[in-house]
Write a structure and sequence with these properties.
CATH topology of the largest domain: D-Maltodextrin-Binding Protein, domain 2
CATH superfamily of the largest domain: Periplasmic binding protein-like II
Pfam families: SBP_bac_1
Protein name: ABC transporter substrate-binding protein
InterPro entries: Bact_solute-bd_prot1, SBP
Number of domains: 2
Number of helices: 17
CATH class of the largest domain: Alpha Beta
Shape: globular
Number of strands: 16
Keywords: Signal
Structural class: alpha+beta
Largest sheet: 5 strands, mixed
Strand content: 15-25%
Radius of gyration: 24 Å
């Protein structure tokens, strides 16, 4: 579930702000560490007079290429400025490339129209749930050959990248990712005298903490589970996974809904406890991602569940909270000794299959231009310096496009360690995080259906969890899953 298109810091780290090493104008120097595919070599050609000349063969840098790039929306002024800088640097290396900006953001209800009208950008953003869907529709290019030539493919975060590797073929490039976490406003707990739960916490710990902080008369909730839009079903799915449940299974070439299981009932019953037993959720519970994160930012709720960096960015740099007031926890285990499973998702860039081979290659070079760049580390250093000057905090993502233990990951950490305004995650959290990928088939449709279930549960006391899930599974199965032929 991609819910951070407005999140600045993840994008800063993931590529929009990193600077690439520049080579000569034709981009053929080995010193360019911007992730470009190698240009074709030159061959010695002998004519009838036996005069040998070195002539470039199939050199893409000598041909005019136009690419329409994925561009930030108008509200992201700082990121737009950084993207403009990247465009300038890219064209210094590739002066043969004309770049057209397109700020369309991926929408599952719009992509078919865009592709049919041939209006989709040369490359565009999408999220983890869409891999199978886009591949089956033929709306993403197979970039396996470009990927195999990529110098830094072995340093990529494989947990994230594997979401867009299907049947051994590569169909996208990871930007950043997340495992759903729970952010806790420690200051609110302290003010109510509520004990900080252990990092290795459980559903009961979450329930008791939320109940202890909630004060309905003052409009304060202990936790703000999202109750509007697809994000409502997305939030709840963490508890389905923690209870050992699955969204779907593949059986005999068919996709079968499985979330109407005992695990699903346990997860839905826990939501009923938060709502009706603890009275711990907002009175106005119809909150989307922005609403719930806004409530946390304004200290109107003590806990919110999402990808960590976007929530913390708003809490610290817009809400005025201090780093020590904002704790990042894994999702709670259903019971002691259980897994702290959170939905694993992420942002990806994919290439338009209607683009020409030259356009696809230049799009790939643009996507990876700032990845694994020493100059990118210099740019990151400059960003951190500027953030210090501006009195703002920098919040790195928990999961980035590179592997944390890669050479580049270690270099990046060394840059972070130079500054005191970089948010520090507890070292204990990484050992507890358990990411589970979103289902590959019709996940957004499943989320939307479950959002209806959550809304009914929050608005009506005494709902029957099993009956709700059976009805939801029947809808998803007949309306969506039965139309799929799975491999």
């Amino acid at each position: 579930m991609r819910k951070y298109s407005s999140v600045l810091l993840s994008v800063l780290v993931a590529g929009s702000l990193l600077s690439a090493c520049s080579g000569n104008n034709n981009g053929n120097t080995a010193g360019n560490k911007g992730g470009e595919a190698s240009a074709a070599p030159t061959n010695a050609v002998t004519d009838n007079t036996a005069t040998a000349t070195d002539a470039p063969v199939d050199d893409i840098t000598q041909r005019k290429v136009t690419i329409k790039i994925h561009y930030p929306t108008p509200d992201l002024t700082e990121i737009r400025a950084q993207e403009d800088d990247k465009i300038k640097r890219f064209q210094e290396v590739y002066p043969n490339v004309e770049i057209v900006k397109d700020d369309w953001q991926y929408n599952v209800s719009e992509i078919g129209i865009k592709m049919a009208a041939n209006e989709a950008p040369t490359f565009f953003n999408t999220f983890a749930t869409e891999a199978k869907f886009l591949v089956e529709k033929g709306w993403v290019a197979d970039i396996t050959d470009l990927w195999n030539k990529y110098e830094f493919k072995d340093q990529i975060n494989t947990v994230l990248q594997n979401q867009f590797i299907i049947d051994g073929k590569v169909f996208g490039v990871t930007q950043k990712g997340y495992v759903t976490t729970t952010m806790i406003n420690k200051k609110m707990l302290d003010e109510k005298g509520v004990a900080i739960p252990p990092m290795d916490w459980t559903w009961d710990d979450m329930l008791n903490t939320a109940k202890g902080v909630a004060d309905a008369k003052k409009g304060i909730s202990g936790i703000a589970p999202m109750g509007k839009g697809n994000e409502s079903g997305w939030n709840w799915t963490n508890f389905l996974f923690e209870a050992g449940g699955e969204i779907q299974k593949i059986e005999g070439g068919k996709v079968i809904a499985t979330f109407n299981s005992d695990a699903g009932v346990k997860a839905l019953d826990f939501y009923k406890k938060l709502r009706w037993e603890a009275n711990a959720i907002p009175q106005d519970w119809a909150l989307g991602w922005g609403d719930a994160v806004g409530a946390f930012q304004q200290s109107r709720t003590a806990m919110v569940m999402a990808g960590s960096d976007g929530v913390i960015e708003q809490a610290l740099n817009q809400g005025g909270l201090k780093p020590e007031d904002v704790l990042t926890y894994p999702m709670p285990a259903m019971e002691k000794g259980g897994k702290h499973t959170g939905v694993l998702g992420g942002d990806y860039l994919v290439i338009n299959p209607n683009a020409t081979p030259d356009e696809q290659e230049m799009a790939f070079r643009y996507i990876t231009f700032d990845y694994f760049s020493d100059k990118g580390l210099e740019a990151l250093d400059a960003i951190l310096q500027q953030r210090t000057t501006d009195g703002k905090y920098f919040i790195p993502p928990l999961l980035d496009y590179y592997s944390a233990d890669s050479e580049f990951g270690k270099k990046t950490k060394a840059v972070y360690d130079k500054y005191t305004n970089v948010y520090q995650y507890s070292p204990d959290i990484m050992g507890l995080l358990d990411g589970k990928p979103e289902a590959q088939y019709n996940t957004q449709d499943y989320y939307a259906t479950m959002s209806n279930v959550i809304q009914e549960l929050f608005s009506k006391k005494g709902t029957d969890s099993k009956s709700q899930l059976e009805a939801a599974a029947k809808t998803v199965q007949e309306k969506f899953f039965d139309t799929i032929k799975a491999e």
